[in-house]
From TrEMBL:
Protein name: 2,2-dialkylglycine decarboxylase
UniProt record similarity statement: Belongs to the class-III pyridoxal-phosphate-dependent aminotransferase family.
Length: 440
């Protein structure tokens, strides 16, 4: 139980005791004390609609998660050096969702850590060091994976591009080099990999692999053209590299039609990385790979993580995946995502500032522009819309190289009323934008 708290006091203390680059969202930050499904409640009990957070995948404060966590904490919470059926049951559940030959699981504590491990596995298996990755990706916050996160290393004050990383253009067919009117755009974007491979050869490097978010999220909620990853993977494998799919944002049913994004792209990765939603808020990351790659890694020193694969984590992770199945949440993502996308496409027709609406299931981007002819990014418009939506108590984010893409990514529990609320409020805010622009 908390005593009544003053938001301003918490803000002041936070500014004193935390680094300034630990950012808060919104001009007027929110303080959230409770959650339930896709609803959030602030310090006064006022409700907000969560249209942003992908971590509470099966909904905030799910009673089944509370129950298994409490049950396991009463029994034991130990590590992978001892046998426990919760660990193998969790692995079995994950593997039931993945195609052959993906059959070996590693449990870690975050998406970052899973990507770190993916780098080690790729290097152990190939003997190479060099990585190829899209030019606006994010894979985590540690020294190792910042180096493959162009979004961070290229940012102001970032560490810069390491010599062992080659970047290829994000396959964005709205704003990138090849547009939607080009039938061959998937292959043309994929062919950019050839230059990256040539560069590695020229520099005397050796390829370890390719890593990408299956649908680039910080890149602007991009849905690459169908067949894109197949073209990239073919080239990477021909050059002896390992293909890593970061499914932290796209996995576990969010896309509605597909449990994992790579299925839509018609590929089977060598390594799949999961994070955020798989623990529904409990810190948990998972890496799945082939026996062949795991065996190469096993030639090296012992692998161990104190908390990764703890009994508690495994109980929670399995429960999350069971809930997705039991509550039909992937199907809900398909239906609700369809409703949202249809309503957002109406907005695209109605408002000039909406340049593009794209998405699948509950992974949605709305690209805002300030000029319909040039597609000049509507960065300030996006900031305005995001903050006004917060005023009417709907939480969503903004993303993309120009920070002009509204990011809609609610828990999979969202219902028709929630979708209506988002669409109704967004239309009102976009009307405000139109009026302001008219006056400006
Ligand atoms: N990969 C992707 C695609 C992500 O979006 C994130 C987190 N936003 C991560 C990796 C890192 O996950 P974590 O913050 O849990 O370490």
């Amino acid at each position: 139980r908390y005593q009544p708290v003053n938001r301003e006091d918490v803000l002041k203390e936070r500014r004193e005791h935390f680094g300034a680059n630990l950012r808060l969202t919104y001009d007027q930050p929110v303080m959230l004390m409770r959650g339930w499904k896709h609803h959030l409640f602030d310090e006064w009990g006022r409700p907000y609609l969560d249209a942003y957070n992908n971590v509470p995948h099966v909904g905030h404060a799910h009673p089944r998660i509370q129950a298994v966590a409490a049950d396991q904490l009463k029994r034991i919470n130990s590590n992978t050096r001892y046998l426990h059926p919760a660990q193998t049951e969790f692995a079995e559940k994950i593997l039931s969702k993945l195609p052959d030959p993906l059959s070996v699981c590693f449990f870690v504590n975050s998406g970052t850590e899973a990507n770190e491990l993916a780098l080690r596995l790729a290097r152990a298996h190939t003997g190479g060091k060099d990585m190829i990755t899209p030019d606006h990706g994010y894979h985590g916050n540690t020294t190792g994976v910042i180096d493959i996160s162009a979004y961070k290393f290229n940012a102001k004050g970032g560490v810069g591009q390491p010599d062992w990383v080659q970047l290829i253009e994000v396959a964005d067919d709205y704003r990138g080099s090849f547009g939607r009117d080009d039938q061959d755009r998937a292959e043309k974007f994929a062919a950019l990999t050839d230059t990256a491979l040539d560069n590695i050869t020229k520099c005397g490097g050796k390829l370890a692999g390719f890593i990408a978010e299956t649908y680039p999220s910080v890149g602007g909620q991009i849905i690459p053209p169908k067949g894109y990853l197949a073209g990239v993977y073919r080239r990477i494998r021909a050059a002896g590299g390992v293909c890593i799919a970061d499914e932290v944002q796209t996995g576990l049913g969010r896309l509605g039609e597909y449990y994992f994004g790579f299925e839509e792209q018609g590929v089977v990765p060598d390594i799949v990385v999961m994070g955020k939603p798989i623990g529904n808020g409990h810190p948990l990351g998972v890496l799945v790979t082939t026996h062949e790659i795991a065996d190469s890694f096993a030639q090296g020193p012992e692998y161990f993580s104190t908390f990764g694969g703890s009994t508690l984590s495994c109980r929670i992770g399995k429960e999350v995946l069971d809930i997705v199945d039991d509550e039909g949440l992937m199907e809900n993502a398909r239906i609700m995502g369809g409703k949202l996308l249809a309503g957002l496409r109406d907005c695209e027709r109605e408002f000039d500032v909406v340049g593009d609406v794209r998405g699948m299931g509950l992974f949605i981007g709305v690209e805002l522009i300030s000029d319909d002819n040039t597609r000049a990014p509507g960065t300030e418009i996006a900031a305005y819309v995001k903050n006004r939506m917060r005023d009417v108590r709907i939480l969503l984010g903004s993303e993309g190289p120009h920070d002009n893409v509204l990011k809609i990514r609610p828990p999979l529990t969202i219902d028709e009323e929630g979708c209506e609320m988002i669409l109704h409020s967004l239309k009102q805010v976009l009307q405000e934008v139109t009026i302001r622009q008219g006056m400006g």
